[in-house]
Write a structure and sequence with these properties.
Layout: E1 3-6, E2 9-15, E3 23-29, E4 38-41, H1 48-60, E5 68-72, H2 77-80, H3 83-88, E6 92-96, H4 97-106, H5 112-115, H6 126-135, H7 137-140, E7 149-151, E8 156-159, E9 162-168, E10 177-181, E11 186-190, H8 210-220, E12 228-231, H9 241-265, H10 271-277, H11 292-311, E13 315-319, E14 325-329, H12 332-336
Parallel strand pairs: 4-5, 5-6, 6-7, 11-12
Antiparallel strand pairs: 1-2, 2-3, 3-4, 8-9, 9-10, 10-11, 13-14
Helix pairs in contact: 6-11, 9-11, 10-11
Bound molecules: zinc ion (ZN) (2 copies).
Length: about 325
């Protein structure tokens, strides 16, 4: 059911079947005045259920796509999956230049070694990597190529009487962008800050420390007065932005501690070995029972924590003759000094 979240702003729920995220909140800002364009934020996967929910929502709102711009917060398929179809129906697309360039460069429907080079050498068998890569929604439900007007940090957008500032929040993806309206203190958060689920932080080609970037982007949120946080998944459950940002910082601090303790227990472990020993909130008895599509997220998440330990001098990483990266702890007394 469509909900009005603020004056001229609506949330369209889009089902994400068989996905722990459950739904996407697609936001719609109704244009202001005779020539004002509408703004739609994010789309859902390229799959029938998402298409149906979005179509229904847009028709209930009486939205004319030729008078609607589409803003994509980041490159993930649950946010961009229907972009090409909406463009074909007349929508003009805006997207951050970094994520748009990554979509172009890595074309996520090619062989995984080319599309996801950052997953090489993690210690999983070739056969398991193939299975994981075949199951991830990041590849299954992507959009066909589309054009976009590129935006960057600090750019201003005007829709429905709102003055929206593009706020770069790299981490969840390298080019993730939130939209902030200072007058009404509201922020469209994409997946940068989610409230009853922790945003996935993973690894990216050409990014050395994505968790470090993510933590910096979380700390950057302190500079914004956000009364109405608008996350792309689930709800805020009445939790304030400041409280949630703190919870997320504490969460990653704890996970870093857990990863470091595992490295202290045994040196020269692969990312795969560490991931198998981490604690995960998932309905599976143990690591071997993880659905492959979730395992790949867990591997990426683990590697982002290991990379951050390496970048902050708390761990080191070397390549073994089998081609895998192996991580070891740098003893605490060496980095406390
Ligand atoms: Zn995402
Ligand atoms: Zn998402």
């Amino acid at each position: 059911m469509i909900t009005k979240v603020f004056e001229r702003i609506y949330s369209i729920p889009i089902r994400l079947p068989h996905n722990p995220l459950r739904n996407l909140n697609c936001y719609f800002i109704r244009g202001w005045g005779r020539h004002g364009k509408n703004l739609l934020i994010d789309t859902g996967f390229n799959m029938p259920e998402c298409r149906e929910d979005l179509r229904k929502g847009l028709s209930e709102l009486n939205a004319d796509l030729t008078k609607t711009d589409l803003f994509l917060t980041h490159l993930h398929a649950d946010h961009t999956g229907l972009a090409a179809e909406l463009e074909a129906a007349g929508a003009h697309i805006l997207m951050g230049e970094t994520d748009f360039a990554m979509l172009r460069k890595y074309k996520y429907d090619g062989p995984w070694r080319k599309c996801f080079p950052e997953y090489l050498g993690l210690g999983a068998s070739e056969q398991e990597m193939e299975l994981m890569m075949a199951s991830t929604p990041a590849r299954k439900y992507i959009s066909s190529p589309f054009h976009a007007e590129l935006v960057q940090n600090g750019d201003s957008l005007f829709y429905g009487g709102y003055h929206l500032t593009c706020v770069a929040a790299p981490g969840h993806t390298p080019g993730h962008i939130c939209l902030y309206d200072a007058a009404d203190r509201l922020m469209f958060l994409g997946d940068h800050v989610l409230f009853d689920i922790t945003p996935n932080v993973t690894v990216w080609p050409e990014v050395k420390d994505s968790l470090g970037d993510y933590l910096n982007s979380l700390r950057k949120m302190e500079a914004y007065d956000v009364e109405i946080p608008l996350p792309a998944h689930r709800t805020t459950n009445g939790i304030s932005m400041g409280t949630r940002v703190n919870e997320l910082l504490v969460h990653h601090e704890r996970r870093l501690g857990e990863s470091y303790a595992l490295l202290c227990r045994q040196p020269r472990q692969t990312c795969y070995q560490i991931a198998a020993q981490m604690t995960w909130k998932i309905r599976a008895d143990d690591w071997s029972q993880f659905p492959p599509g979730q395992k790949i997220f867990a591997l990426g998440e683990t590697k982002s924590h290991l990379d951050h330990l390496v970048c902050s001098g708390k761990a080191r990483c070397e390549r073994s003759p089998d081609g895998n990266w192996r991580y070891s702890a740098v003893q605490r007394d060496a980095w406390d000094r």
